[in-house]
Amino acid sequence: MKNIDHTQNETGKRNRRGFTLLEIIVTIVVLMIVATVAMNIFSATLFAWKRSTEVAESMQHGDFTIEQLVSALNSTVYFNNPRKIYAFKVEKNDLDGLPADTLSFVTSSGAFMPMDSPYLEGPHRLKLLVDHDEYGDAALFATPMPAIADDEEFEEDYATDPMIVSRSIGGLEILFWDDDAEDWTEEWESENSIPERIQVTVYVQFPDEDEDPMQFTRIINIPVYESLKDGLRSPVTSSNNR
């Protein structure tokens, strides 16, 4: 008569029963932990990519705007004229907690001009300001006009709409170098002249309102200032005095 190994039979039965409830719960918990860690890593990577993209785009807008400004200011046109036709004008303002100065001057540069603009070549007055766009967000605007035009009269008579330069620019600040104080100042009292040296700062805003804006600053020595020393007069004035 054969002896039956009951121990072996019991072991086989236990193996065929499969996973216990505790084992399943432990497995699920482990999988949930792994999934959570993976999602956190994915979210962090996605946020870092989005943030780097925003910074790169903001830097492009800031670089473009400040370089266009430098180009336009370096090509400033000025003649001494009693009608203040070529006057360099700055109006100090602020918007949403940032400096929002209005800058108006005559330039021969095509900076900020679209390819089909009649002001692309030749002297013209360029007015730059920061204001709210149609969505209520701050943006940089540009208004070109004939060189001899008065800003307010031209905009009123022709009802011109300023062009949006960049929706990323939320601030613009112009400072003037004071030789006596040897420091930068907001005040410049000359009404019919141009400054020798200015500091221009544009503020680039991010979609996240809690983040501080990025600043791009340039110091510009305006080349045509040297003409003041020579007393150059406007061709318009010369012809009228004949």
Q: Could you characterize the architecture of this molecule?
A:
The chain is an alpha+beta fold and 242 residues long. The chain has one domain (55-240). The chain contains five helices and eleven strands. It has helices at residues 6-16, 21-74, 151-158, 226-230, 235-240, and strands at residues 89-91, 94-95, 98-99, 102-107, 124-132, 138-146, 163-166, 169-178, 183-185, 197-204, 214-221. Strands 1-4-5-6-7 form a five-stranded antiparallel sheet, covered by helices on one side. A four-stranded antiparallel sheet has the order 9-8-10-11, covered by helices on one side. A two-stranded antiparallel ribbon has the order 2-3. The longest helix has 54 residues, at 21-74. The N and C termini lie far apart (143 Å). Residues 237-242 have low confidence and may be disordered.
Assembly of the depicted chains: single chain
**Strand percent estimate:** 25-35%
Low-confidence stretches: 237-242
Q: Ends: how far apart?
A: 143 Å
Radius of gyration: 33 Å
Q: Write down the overall geometry.
A: elongated
Count the domains.
Answer: 1
Fold blueprint:
Elements: H1 6-16, H2 21-74, E1 89-91, E2 94-95, E3 98-99, E4 102-107, E5 124-132, E6 138-146, H3 151-158, E7 163-166, E8 169-178, E9 183-185, E10 197-204, E11 214-221, H4 226-230, H5 235-240
Antiparallel strand pairs: 1-4, 2-3, 4-5, 5-6, 6-7, 8-9, 8-10, 10-11
